[in-house]
Amino acid sequence: MSKLKGRSLISITDYSKEEILQVLDIAEGFEKNIRQKLLDQYVVASLFFEPSTRTRLSFESAVQYMGGSIIGFASADTSSVKKGESLKDTILTVSNYSDLIVMRNPIDGSARFASEVSPVPIINAGDGANQHPTQCLLDLYSIRKTQGTLENLDIALVGDLKYGRTVHSLVQALSLFNATFHLVSPESLKLPSAVKKWIGDANLKYFQYTDLSDVIDKMDIIYMTRIQGERFPDPLEYEKVKNSYILNNSMLANSKENVRVLHPLPRVNEISEDVDDNPKAYYFQQARNGVYVRQALIAAILGLK
Ligand code: CP
Questions:
Q1: Hey, which residues are catalytic here?
Q2: Are residues 184 and 102 in the same domain?
């Protein structure tokens, strides 16, 4: 039985290296057979207080492929939050109707709070600019699948390293795997010191750049991110940096044969559509991997794997 049974997943740092690898191994089984009907008579709640395409729908897809039921809402506007109900009351109510709650919320720390009041496990599907641990697990799955290992890789993280929660989770996880980090961002969107400290504490190296072309040819993984306009206090600051990095096909001409371009998506302009047909582009397969990883996570937390 998995040691993850009954535990919430709020931050990727809640899991040890061994536990992360266990989820990835279970996910491989779901990739081989996506229709494992383990969730007969289980109900999963999906509470999205913030927009989502991939995370919400891949969780729903995961539950449905496993034969379970899913309830919830895709916008706070269709819930009693709109009438002023608190997060605590929402969680205590929904926990009466479900075995597990998946929640996305725009407030940093809201998922941790929910896990402290909830009698059923919570999976954090993104809390503000803080953490996105399930995206991290599918990123790791995608990296291991394409590179054959998670160890000793050169990883470029490009774009909004300040507000991009997927980057924060990924840096913390890859610090367990001896990565070398190449941090490419505008000056105003550098990786927060608290996240950089994870790299230092693991005795690993990071390098900072403002020019994307300085790193492309040396990388195993190029992880592009969207500049998160919705999190800028001042819209004028967003306007200054919104198109800082646009990766196109010709820029990949001298890159490593096995480099893969990842992006958590949605993209705005960060990757030109001419990259989509390049075998080095992996972002849509990455999104598909989200179904297998979320199936694995649900099965492990419910004690079914
Ligand atoms: N990667 C990701 O979180 O995408 P969505 O916002 O569409 O869920």
A1: 54-55, 83, 104, 132
A2: no
Whose tokens are 């290296």? That residue is 17
Same domain, 119 and 257: no
Q: Which of 48, 231, 262, 265 to mutate to test the pocket of ligand 1 (most atoms within 8 A of CB)?
A: 265
Please list the pLDDT of the chain residue by residue as tens digits (305 residues): 579 999 999 999 999 999 999 999 999 999 999 999 999 999 999 999 999 999 999 999 999 999 999 999 999 998 898 899 999 999 999 999 999 999 999 999 999 999 999 999 999 999 998 999 999 999 999 999 999 999 999 999 999 999 999 999 999 999 999 999 999 999 999 999 999 999 999 999 999 999 999 999 999 999 999 998 888 989 999 999 999 999 999 999 999 999 999 999 999 999 999 999 999 999 999 999 999 999 999 999 999 99
Q: What predicted TM-score, i.e. pTM, was given to this entire model?
A: 0.96
Report the C-alpha gap between 294 and 27 in whole angstroms. 8
Q: CA separation (Å) from 25 to 65, 218, 274, 295?
A: 18, 29, 33, 12
Residue 38 sits in the same domain as residue 100: yes
Rounded Cα distance between 43 and 54, Å, is 20
Q: Give the Cα separation of 114 and 120 in Å (integer).
A: 10
Counted domains in the chain: 2
Q: Are residues 27 and 93 in the same domain?
A: yes
Residue 126 Cα to ligand 1 midpoint, Å, equals 9
Residues 152, 267 share a domain: yes
Provide the CATH number for the domain around residue 125. 3.40.50.1370
